[in-house]
Specification:
The complex is a heterodimer of chains A (113) and B (111).
Chain A lengths: L3 E4 L2 E4 L5 E7 L5 E7 L5 E9 L2 E4 L6 E4 L5 E6 L8 E8 L8 E2 L3 E5 L1
Parallel strand pairs in A: 2-11
Antiparallel strand pairs in A: 1-3, 3-8, 4-5, 4-9, 5-6, 7-8, 9-10, 9-11
Chain B lengths: L3 E4 L2 E5 L4 E7 L6 E7 L6 E7 L4 E4 L2 E6 L4 E6 L8 E10 L2 E4 L3 E6 L1
Parallel strand pairs in B: 2-11
Antiparallel strand pairs in B: 1-3, 3-8, 4-5, 4-9, 6-7, 7-8, 9-10, 9-11
Classes of the chains: A mainly beta (113), B mainly beta (111).
Chain lengths: 113, 111
Amino acid sequence: NAGVTQTPKFRVLKTGQSMTLLCAQDMNHEYMYWYRQDPGMGLRLIHYSVGEGTTAKGEVPDGYNVSRLKKQNFLLGLESAAPSQTSVYFCASTRTSGSYEQYFGPGTRLTVT
Amino acid sequence: GENVEQHPSTLSVQEGDSAVIKCTYSDSASNYFPWYKQELGKRPQLIIDIRSNVGEKKDQRIAVTLNKTAKHFSLHITETQPEDSAVYFCAATPGTYKYIFGTGTRLKVLA
């Protein structure tokens, strides 16, 4: 049981390049989330998904797109990276009943130069 | 809009002393209040949580208190140890799918 995994762990992009971050969970969770973490600003929600094929905007969605084609995967895309998107990105998942605990992935450190 | 304020942003205590971190939330619909601990370079991990129908919850040296009327909740760590040094985040949940996190408290336990 791997829990929540993220690939890649690190990435450096030049301004204007694109990339996709992959999040995978093997806990059969319905809800999945993408956050960014910047110093002094906590965890800010980018996009989330309440089920396969469904996505919604969070607090800071501009410049990002997401897709949830399979229940276990949640992809975060940057179409044209900007230095302001330099951050640590965390994926998380939670189930729909019982505990509301969010399980986080190990994070992806992205630098945009 | 919805937000969670967390104080202090940094906290230094002597080993063995207690530490208290406080959070205030704005959305009265929030009904679940978790606390996460994040060690340097690691992912956030749940350490304790409380639901809105409970006023206090304890787990060994950690406790959380909730005042729904005042819309604030607090994390209490007693007999602090060096391994308690980390960043702590509170969160409030206006809905089952939506978490609003505080900005974090960096706790340093001095040996």
